[in-house]
Amino acid sequence: MSEFIHLHTHTHYSMQSSTIMPGELFAECQKLDMAAVGVTDYSSMFNMPELFSYAKKHEVKLIIGAELFLVPGAMTEKKEQVLYHLILLVKNETGYKNLCKILSAAARDGFYKQMPRADFNLIQKNAEGLICLTACREGELSQYILKDEIDKARDFVARYKNLFQDDFYIEMHSHNAPDDARLNEAKIALAKEFGIKLVATNDVHYLKKEDAQYQDALQALKNKQTLSSPNRNRLPTEHFYLKTPDEMARMFDNAQGELVNTLEIAEKCTFVFNDQQPHLPHFPIPSEFENDEAYLRHLTYEGAKKKYGDLDAMGEKGAEVRERIEYELSIICKMGYATYFLIVSDLISASREMGYSVGPGRGSAAGSIVAYLTNITQVDPIKYKLLFERFLNPERVSMPDIDIDFTPVGKQRVLDYTIKKYGAASVAKVIAVGTLGAKAAIRDVGRVLDINLQTVDKIAKLVPGKPGMTLSKAADQVKEFAELESSPEQKIQKLMKFAKALEGRARNVSMHAAAVVVTDGPVEEVVPLYVSNKIETEERRYIDEFDEKSEKEKGKGKSGDDQKQVVTQFDKDWIEKAGLLKIDYLGLETLAVVDETLRLIQKRYGVTIDLESVPIDDKKAYKIFQEGKMAGIFQFESQGMQQYMMKLRPTVIGDIIAMSALYRPGALNARIDENRNAVDLFVDRKNGREKIEYMHPMLAEILEETYGVIVYQEQVMLVSQVMGGFSLAKADNLRKAMGKKKPEIMAKFKDEFVEGAVEKSVDKAVATGIFDLMAEFAGYGFNKSHSAAYGILAYWTAYLKAHYTAEFMAAILNSEAGDTARMKHLTDEAKSMGIAILPPSINHSDALFMVEDIEKGKKAIRVGFSAIKHVGGAAREIVRSRWRRKEPFADLFDLCSTVDLRVVNKKALECLIEAGALDEFDENRAKLIGNLPKAVEYGQKRNKSATLGQEGFFNDENFFADKADAYPEMEEFEPWPDAEKLEREKNLIGFYVSTHPLEPYRRDYEAFATIKLSDKDIQNKRLQKVIGVIVETKKHFDKKGNEMMFGVIEDFTGKADFTVFASVYEKFESVLKKDSIILLVAEAELQEGQIKLLVNEALPIQSVRERFISGIVLRLDSSDESCLGKAAKVKEICEENQGGIPLNFEVIIEEGDEQQLLQLFSRNISVQAENEVLDKFAAVVGEEFVKIRA
Question: Where is the Polymerase/histidinol phosphatase N-terminal domain (predicted)?
Fold first, then answer.
């Protein structure tokens, strides 16, 4: 072993100050025969368990520590102070706890301008078990020496010597810097004067000398500089690398004492971080129960009574449930996790008691019957054949992982509950360490090297946007990208080289979106804490906007250091090693939609729905999936999923659960043959287009529910158990090994599986083939427990949508307020399901979308004020004012004199008018806008008068006696053209509400348009007719200099981009104008779920009917008593409006219980095809029975 070790080493966790990856550090130390190494990242011990894992792997002792930022004054003072550096190393368990406290306090209490700061008082209180080194040239001692403040240097040395005694060492450096000799000479003198040992260190920021250039670039990136920036911050020499013992000896002229003292320190440091026992908080239980295990057993069997009934009276079913309960409880209690289940069950109960829904389950926890019976999940694992071992494997000791879906508001409420119950010191969020990904490395290095942004962007876009993508993988997959490494341009070569060197390095820290730890004492005694500035979460904004219950909970709009959130310094992957209970509190918007829907149902019908009790075989719910009515259906909304569900036509819950598992990249990319993937195979087998076959009869029962296709990880586990003789715990280990695709482990399992299968009389070749099939499946197989929970939630949303369409769609519209494209899609689907969309109304709208009853038992959704841009907080004031006066607003002047015009300001009123919310005052919106200044002035004077306690202006008590007489006279204004009126409305709401520009031409649209722009199943490259309004145009010149055009056309259902090449544009330029309503004859193609059009021809809507009409069809019902009378009236209309368009009839004839449609073609009746004539026909037979035939 060498007689020197490094004690002052930075890894990449020093945040853009070091390029060293932990694995590389320990491998290099092992190579250099160094017995130990001290890691001292800046003010942190980020992911310390990771460092210890590499230390163990490479048999190198880790001395953990940190380099602190120290201020001379109080660290809590929020003001600029000099920052000094100081090294603290951990000797033992006490030292570790004390360093955790120091780092936590520096971050929590001393954080200023993105810097955690400590002070001497903090160190003094927590010095036990720590070794102190004086740090680098930025250390307090070095700074005093450089400033010739020797008295201050002596005071410093005396103070720290007194505090740390023999555990205080003066660091000496030799980085080949100009001041090194001067610093070392002074330090030697001080060490001699105070009897303090010297220690030689190298301030290590990169592994090898040649890596200096990469560290330089990383530091430039941190400081937002380029390598060409003058006077930029950088290390002074290229000697800040992991030097060999021989190099260190030469740098210090073989001063052995300083080198050997590093070994003395290493011997003092005995702290080793092993996997910790769980630090579960105390859970209060009723006094009649002996312990947590007994109480969990009680709750489980109480849950069994409620969910199953009397187990003793249920025969075999009851015995099966009891056996499963006992098996799970024995494992849970043996592994010491009873308290964990009680804690999680309590959190979920708290959410429900507060009125916030919780998801039916998430992840593998849905496979536990104990979780089901203690209301942690709402998925019966016996009914759905879910496996407990997928959740908690007795052969693989690890903390359970239960993730919980709350509503966004419920998430915050339950977090507040957690803090109140266990104490703020015992609860913390978890850090997320952001690293430089492949694309980011290219872009960031490009900036540092000052390479043209367009060039860098082009290179970055060559990197595939797949999860886990690296620059090496990109080079393997993209030839053009690989060739850049040997580019003739030196800058490009340098870019690629530097990007690879910096990829994967830590870039920043933030707060994990969901993970929370709860401990049996202060978190900082187990892991150090840090702060993240990301406190302004979506959930908190949601509370601020919609919940007025607690002003205390509202964010105050603070920024910077005041907006800090305490987080652990270990991320989610390493926190378990510290024995901390981690729970993921996830905010799921779908649950908020479900809650709002249930609230509306209760309010409107007095019905309370228990979703867990709704029938799982409801035909109307399955019809939602079969017809592709997926808007708002949890996890089934994507266009691809919509198409698959329409092909699958699910009829049982198993189909939905399977699609929840299958519709993922693995299965979609798994080729069964040239034309099909794994999802296509499942669909074909479900619908009988392919015979269901099993490789062996043993597989039939396991794969029957998925039509012989392996879909779930649990199916692999069951096959391994039934055929290979594995225990389910061992089968779970196989499942995990398959996921990681480790050949040596897979080979061992394969031999065991085949051997076990042969013992059960399975042919060896068949067993081998089945194992290979399972191994292939591992590429896309999914967790059935998770799929079941999410499939059930999807079914619940479909059930609500099918039975309470208006309420469900109103709820989801409220959740999507602000996303205009999404709201348009939702309102279109609502209309397609028979729900009218009513425009905003000053006297009928609420702040949110609301359901109203209209004629003949039909329902409608009224647009809420919050959907109108720039209205915002004015919505509440309008609703409150209307409620207080208990009568509708009469007109514009009445409105302005009633509401608080400081809240409902002029801008908000303008937007309300343009959105159509004041149409009941006057449908001439231009007139309302023109008179608004007068009305606002009137309202302000009247409000001021009321505030002053006056009866009227100028003390005239009769001034407002008759308000109508007091109003100023309304001026007349020319109404806006319909196109302008609708465009203003759409700009504010996001979609047309009062009407649609196409509405006057709906008959033509239905007759002549061959596709709708929302269609997802079209034949590509086929000529289609599209009718719509042009909403965007952009002229362009092609390579030959000829003018062409790009544009966007919109119909009733959606939008599509279109392209008009120069030869076509020349012919139809006069027609292709913004706001024009036209018919395009175009080649249509579906690209990424959106229709793209290549235009061949364009016609103004006015000439479409003349060009394409072949006839008019009227439908009559022979069973209608007035049928003959209607026929007579039709004849009169025909005689009065003779023309050139054939008129034909369809007559409905009833024969018993069936109806037949008799088509009558007339050669003698021809009429005019103008709308006036068609309106007359519609008045007689009904609009729905008048059709134009193309």
Answer: 5-72
Lowest-confidence pick of 14-28, 54-68, 955-969: 955-969
Biggest distance spanned by C-alpha atoms of the chain: 124
Confidence of residue 739 (pLDDT cuts 50, 70, 90): confident
Residue 511 pLDDT > 60, yes or no? yes
How far is residue 720's CA from residue 770's CA, in Å, rounded to a whole number?
10
- Amino acid 909 reads L
| CB 568 within 8 Å of CB 575 | yes
What span, in angstroms and rounded, lies between the C-alpha atoms of 761 and 263?
Answer: 63
Burial (0-12, 13-18, 19+ Cβ within 10 Å), 337:
buried
How far apart (Å, rounded) are the C-alpha atoms in residues 606 and 596?
14
Residue pair 346/339 in contact (Cβ under 8 Å)? The answer is: no
Is residue 9 a contact partner of residue 40, using CB atoms and an 8 Å limit? yes
Give the strand pairing for 403-406 and 198-200: unpaired
1058: β partners? 1047, 1093
Which DSSP category does 355 fall into?
Answer: T
460: helix, coil or strand? helix
Name every residue whose Cβ is closer than 8 Å to that of residue 1189 and which is 6 or more positions away in sequence.
1007, 1109, 1110, 1111, 1112, 1113, 1144
Query: How many CA atoms, within 13 angstroms, populate the side-chain half-sphere of residue 67?
Result: 28
Taking the C-alpha atoms of residue 691 and residue 171, their distance in angstroms, rounded to an integer, is 77
Question: What value does the CA radius of gyration of the chain take, rounded to a whole number of Å?
Answer: 37
CA distance readout (Å), 1007 to 99, 495, 760, 1010, 1012 = 77, 59, 66, 8, 12
φ, ψ of residue 544 in degrees (nearest 5): -55, -40
Phi-psi label, residue 15: left if phi above 0, alpha if psi -120 to 50, beta otherwise: left
Binned at pLDDT 50, 70 and 90, residue 735 comes out as confident
**Class for domain 430-551+562-579, per CATH?**
mainly alpha
Place of tokens 């160094």: 34
Query: Cα separation of 655 and 651, whole Å?
Result: 7
DSSP state of 1103: G
- Contacts of 218 by beta carbon, 8 Å cutoff, 6+ apart: 16, 17, 18, 19, 502, 505
Beta-bridge mates of residue 133: 87, 169
CA distance from start to end of the chain: 92
Length of the chain: 1190
Q: What does the pLDDT average to over 541-568?
A: 46
The DSSP bridge partners found for residue 70 are: 84, 118
| Structural domain 12-208+236-268, CATH architecture | Alpha-Beta Barrel (3.20)
Token couple for 1147? 């007559």
Are 519 and 441 in contact by the 8 Å Cβ rule? The answer is no
CA 467 to chain centre: 15
Contact 253, 215 (CB under 8 A): no
Q: What is the CATH number of domain 999-1107?
A: 2.40.50.140
**Phi, psi values for residue 318, rounded to 5°:** -65, -40
- The one-letter amino acid at 1070: S
CA 842 – CA 868 distance, rounded (Å) = 12
Distance of CA 39 to the CA centre of its chain: 35
Strands 529-532 and 565-571: antiparallel
Please name the residues in contact with 271: beta carbons below 8 A apart, sequence gap of 6 or more: 64, 90, 91, 92, 93, 95, 96
- DSSP conformation letters of 605-624: H-----GGGS-TT-HHHHHH
- Contact yes or no for 1111/1143 (Cβ under 8 A): yes
Residue 26 CA to residue 61 CA, distance in Å, equals 9
Helix locations, 89-139, DSSP H = 93-108, 120-125
Kindly provide the residue ranges of all beta strands, DSSP E only, lying in 267-347, ordered along the sequence.
none
From CA 1082, how far away is CA 1065, in angstroms rounded?
Answer: 13
Q: Give me the pLDDT at residue 537, please.
A: 40
Q: Which of 576, 569, 565, 572 has its CA nearest to residue 519?
A: 576
Q: What is the pLDDT of residues 558-585, one digit of tens each?
A: 444 445 788 999 999 899 888 888 999 9
